[in-house]
Amino acid sequence: MNVDSNELKLKREAEFHNERYASESENREPVQKYYRLKKELDEKFAQKVINKAKNGKVLEIGCGPNINTIHWVDLATESWAIDISEVAIEQARAVMGANHSKAHLEVMNAESMNFDDNYFDLVCGKGIIHHLDVNKSYQEISRILKPDGLAIFIEPLGHNPIINLYRRLTPKMRSDDEYPLLMSDVKLAQDYFEHTQITYKNMTRILAAFAPKGLLFDTAKAALGGLDSIINTILPFTKKYSWMILMELERPRSKR
Ligand SMILES: C[S@@+](CC[C@H](N)C(=O)[O-])C[C@H]1O[C@@H](n2cnc3c(N)ncnc32)[C@H](O)[C@@H]1O
Fold it and tell me: Which of 6, 28, 178, 205 is least enclosed by beta carbons within 10 angstroms?
C-alpha cells in the first residue's frame, strides 16, 4: 500500500469509528448474544494483563470508548491508551472519569507510534490488530516492547464459512478496511516474536449463542466447548475455524 492509500485508509477508519461512536442510534443488541461467548477469553486476558501491569508501563491500543485501561491504571507505573478515532478518545476520557488524569489518552496511529524502543512492559488490545496492517503493527509492537515484555490481544479469525456468511450479511457493522485475521496473519507474528501462544475459542461452541440465558445456555456452552476441545485435539487444523483467538506474544526479535 503506498503512502497516499494508507493515509486514506487511516482516514476512513477514523471516520467510520467517529461516526459509530457518536451515533446514539447504533444498535448492537443483535450481536450481544454472541459476545456472551467472549467471557472466558476476556477473563484470561484480564488475568494475564493485571499480572503484568503491576508496577509496569502499559499501552492499550485501539482502546475505543470502552477503555480497559481503567482496570489497571492504579497498578501500573505508567498507563497509555491510544486510538485513531478522536471520538473514541473523548468518550474514553469520560469513561475513565476522575482516573483519566492518571493515564495518557491520545489519538495515535498504532501502525506508527511515537514511543521509544523497548519502552513498554505490556502492550494489549481487544479487536484491534485486524484493523491494522498486520506486518506494520507487529513490527511496531515488537519495537516498543521490552525484551521481557508481553503483548496480548483478543482477535477474530476469518476461516469459518458460516461466520463469514454472517459477516457478509451484516456489512454495516464493520469498517471497509478491517478483516478477520487469517492463519497467515497469525503466523506472521513469529517473524517478530520468538514466543507466540495462541488460544482458540468458539468453533461449534458459537451455536450456544442461540440458547436462552440460564441453564440451557450454560449447558450448551460447556458441551460444545468440550466438543471443540476433542475435535481440535484430534484434528488440529480445525482450530482455524474458531471465531476468536487470544494471542500472547513474547520475546520480541531484534529491532530492525
Ligand atoms: C473493534 S474496535 C475495538 C475497540 C475496543 N478495543 C473494544 O474492544 O471495544 C477497533 C478500534 O480500533 C481503532 N483503530 C482502527 N485503526 C486504528 C489505528 N490505525 N490506530 C489506532 N487505533 C485504530 C478504531 O478507532 C476502534 O476504536
Answer: 28
